[in-house]
Amino acid sequence: MNFLELAETFAIMEKTTSRLELTDHLVLILKKTPTDMLDKIVYLIQGKLGPDYQSSELGIAEKLIIKSLSIVSGHSLNEIKKKYSEIGDLGEVAYNILTNKIQTTLISGLLTIENVFNTLLKITKVSGVGSLDNKLRFIVSLLNNSSNLEAKFIVKLILGNLRLGIADFTLLDAIALTFTGDKKNRQILERAYNVSSDLGKIVLILSKGSIEDI
Asked: How would you write the chain as a 3-class SS string?
């Protein structure tokens, strides 16, 4: 699975109100994901880059996103600010203004989930003199290589406002169904999550072993 496929699924889930349908979409995502990427996928679905106790905060202000979008799209800062005041969501602004952008990835290859995740993780580790310029460079590199739909969800992930309507218990249902075939095992997974606060770790253990390992 590449990041475009994930973004397309996110777009569907955004408009889905049925918990059962959301669970079905999550199961499909988990089944498509290579084992070594499962923890990263789970964190991204949660809108995170890791468990809460690791505190991987991006700390990106909206004005840095606006500047990034200006660089990538060629629109002025004022144009983007105007769009933002009209739409009220920078992810939607990215989707809107990058609609006609020629996707660099058509030439260089599809944007991978691993690349997006690792680049976002690099942003959390940037500090010191010139940190804002370095963060800007990372964001621009991602947006340059993304379609407008990918850009929408990259921006949402960066700003921490990915709202797919997925509660942890729905994700736990999907994990139980995918790796044990029985939603009832969610109770065991939930206890493990309450103890560890790390759903990514749980899904990795489960994918490589069994419910007994949990």
From this structure: CEHHHHHHHHHHHHCCCCHHHHHHHHHHHHHHCCHHHHHHHHHHHCCCCCCHHHCCCCCCCHHHHHHHHHHHHCCCHHHHHHHHHHHCCHHHHHHHHCCCCCCCHHHHCCCEHHHHHHHHHHHHHCCCCCHHHHHHHHHHHHHHCCCHHHHHHHHHHHHCCCCCCCCHHHHHHHHHHHHHCCHHHHHHHHHHHHHHCCHHHHHHHHHHCCCCCC
